[in-house]
Amino acid sequence: MDNQKQNVQMLEKVLDMAKSKGAKDSEVLFTQSSKFSLKANEGSLEEYKVSSSQIMGIRLTKDQKVGISYCEDMQEESLSLMVEQALENSRYVKEDEFEEICVSHKDRVFSDNEKTYREDNTPAEKKIELCLALEKGVKDKDSSVKGAPYNGYNEGESHSYIANSLGTLCFEKDKSFSCYTSALLEKEGKQSMHYHGSVGRNFKDLDLNNCIDESFNHAHALLTAGPIETGKYDVIFSLDMLDDIFGVFSTMFSGKSAVDGVNPYREKIGQKVAVSGLSIKDCPQYIDGFNYSTFDDEGNLRKEFSLIENGVLKTFYHNSATAKFHNVENNSCASRSPKGTLGVGGTQQIISHGESSETDLKKGRYLNIVSLQGLHSGADALSGDFSFGASGYLCENGIVGKGIKGITISGNFYQLLQEISLIGKDMKSNAYSTFFSPEIRFSNLNIAGK
Q1: Gap between the Cα atoms of 214 and 60, Å rounded
Q2: Which CB contacts under 8 angstroms, 24+ apart, belong to 373-378?
Q3: Which of 48, 93, 145, 284 could crosslink 293 through cysteines, CB 3.0-4.6 Å?
């Protein structure tokens, strides 16, 4: 607690500095973080890394202009220079009638709960054992395994503060653990590789065996895979891949992109943009979510809200500036690092369950896609057009058939949302528990194969 008290006093000192130097209002972000990582190679540790950092960033306003600056040295002289630099930077930007420091809390918001932080005293030896076991577990699976080129263990802890000249003070701490491995297989001149990870709030939450099995099983099934006939196919993406696709086209939910004129949905609020069965929410306190969050990067308290409801676009992610620009309610989605400018971002997307049973969802022939390549180079976020390399399985009536790879899947994402044929009943999660959705069956995607 003494360290926390000292940090709060330092933040208050910086805010006083900004006021004394002529800033109208100011906001300070301060983060302290520590990281520990391991990597294995050929049965030995290739990397054992321990690091820590601290960084403070200030955002201030003067004459309707915004200035930012940051520093990594917490000496008073450095903090003073940071404030002066932010004021100097504000002189060279345009006036902004929308961005301001405006969040005011009567009470301090100190989020300190097991949803984001749990004590863990696992000795380093156990973590090293897990890291080595990730590589060994994959290699022991089969003689065709040539290696686990990507594997490792990571843990991190961060303490984050937000304070502003209006009296707002927020604090949140986070601790996370993760591990991952990959399986590289080679046989008769053919190669395949797949990787999988696991996350947890405690070391004991990590699922070593699932990482090994998922990596090996997919790589093994795809080793002898090849392309299928060119044509139109129904597709069910794995939750990891569905999350990645939504991430590629996340511009459609950005209030900042709408302000900048590069959001394809910028004039579609209140209009139908997807099938009526599709509803998507941002749920910052979703109980099973790994991106659990109490407040945004302006200090606004977060809350659940709908992005798409029954196919209708309801709102974008907003911070105070974009909400003011659009003349709508701020839904507490400000995103900013100590070094960065004010942006927007979500927490945990939840796609509501549908009405289709497992039997109906997987009736007939369809592709189950478990890996995509060229996600960013093969997509145009503004038009929605995409063309990705893909691999997965040809399935029929729920039975997983032969592996497929060397195909290209293409279409238009925004049209795809209007061509959803079925949404399952059972909620599932991506590997990192940040994206939750039932399985969704898309109809008639273009597949280029042989």
Answers
A1: 48
A2: 375/244, 375/245, 375/248, 376/248
A3: 284
Structure tokens at 79: 């903090």
Q: Which helix (H) or strand (E) holds 179?
A: strand 169-187
Mention every residue, 6+ apart, whose C-beta is less than 8 A from residue 47: 37, 38, 39, 152
Where residue 450 falls among pLDDT bands split at 50, 70, 90? confident
Nearest to 423 by CA among 311, 271, 295: 311
439: pLDDT strictly greater than 90:
yes
Model pLDDT for residues 246-269, shown as the tens digit of each residue:
999 999 999 999 999 999 999 999
pLDDT band at 115 (very low <50, low <70, confident <90, very high): confident
- CA dihedral (273, 278, 284, 286) in degrees, to 10, reads 180
- The pLDDT confidence band at residue 398, using thresholds 50, 70 and 90, is very high
CATH level 3 topology of 2-139+157-174: PmbA/TldD fold (3.30.2290)
| Phi, psi (rounded to 5 degrees) for 259 | -60, -40
- Distance CA(185)–CA(223), nearest Å, equals 7
Span(s) in the chain for CATH 3.30.2290.10: 2-139+157-174
What CA–CA distances, in Å, run from 156 to 18, 178, 182?
32, 9, 22
Q: Which two tokens stand for residue 269?
A: 């609020």
Report the mean per-residue pLDDT for the chain. 96
- The rounded distance, in Å, linking the Cα atoms of 218 and 235 is 18
What are the percentages of helix, strand and coil residues in the chain, rounded to 5? Answer: 25, 40, 35
- Per residue in 192-214, pLDDT (tens digit) is 999 999 999 999 999 999 999 99
Q: Which secondary structure element, helix H or strand E, spans residue 88, and what is its range?
A: helix 76-90
Stretch 68-77: mean pLDDT = 97
> Is the pLDDT reported for residue 149 higher than 60?
yes
Biggest CA-to-CA distance, the chain: 73
**Contacting residues for 119 by C-beta, under 8 A, at least 6 apart:** none
Chain length of the chain: 450
